[in-house]
Design a protein that fits this description.
Blueprint (H helix, E strand, L loop, with lengths): L1 E6 L6 H14 L5 E5 L10 H15 L4 E11 L3 H12 L5 E6 L7 H6 L2 E3 L8 H19 L8
Parallel strand pairs: 1-2, 1-4, 3-4, 3-5
Length: about 160
Amino acid sequence: MKVIFLTTTNKFPPWLDQLSEEYAKKISFWLPVELRNLATKNFSRQDKEHKLKAEEESFINFFKADDFVLLCDESGKNFNSIEFSKKIENILSTSKKRLLIVIGGAFGVGTQVKQRADMVLSLSNFVLNHHLALGVAVEQVYRAVTILKNVKYHNQ
């Protein structure tokens, strides 16, 4: 199964590119992985509804029927790292072709994306900036895989 971290932002800060690429490279030792950005037209902060709609369309158009869509959203379920690794193991054992880990933009995601999600995950009890959320998601998937592969990384 290919793991795709899916975002919609127009520009990542350099630190995020470095962090996410580093963990994606580590994950790729065990799983094919891709960092995919579906950049949309720039909208002003006052144009929230148009921005959400454009991002939602980008996500929905990217999704395929045989994808497992894991949405990172503040309204999702919290897991510790061990629990999350078991969820990842269960997802990887399905017949789905791709695991899409979706990080919404500054205003989250639209209703259609939430409805399409197979699982909604909260990365923190805090609300995270969408850039930081991507960094956390990539690191946590790496952590989950190392737990599953019994590689020394996670300390508990």
